[in-house]
Design brief:
mainly alpha; single chain; about 60% helix
């Protein structure tokens, strides 16, 4: 029987593409699992839900009107 030997050629572009795919897959798994674990911990009551960042900022309508009138001067 005749045996054929096949050699694969990986150029630098293909190697970079493989590394990029691996890094992207790892980052995706880490971010997905972090979000999933946060939801599970919140559901079980192990961590408190985070407040919205913009809830701490108090802006009244009069402040907005005063700012817009002072810009026109």
């Amino acid at each position: 029987m005749l045996q054929m030997i096949h050699f694969l050629y990986f150029d630098p572009g293909l190697g970079a593409m493989i590394i990029q795919a691996i890094v992207a897959a790892v980052a995706g798994v880490v971010l997905f699992s972090k979000n999933l674990m946060y939801k599970i911990k919140t559901f079980l009551g192990l961590s408190k839900p985070q407040d919205e960042v913009f809830d701490d900022i108090d802006i009244e309508d009069s402040d907005i009107d005063n700012a817009s009138h002072s810009d026109r001067k």
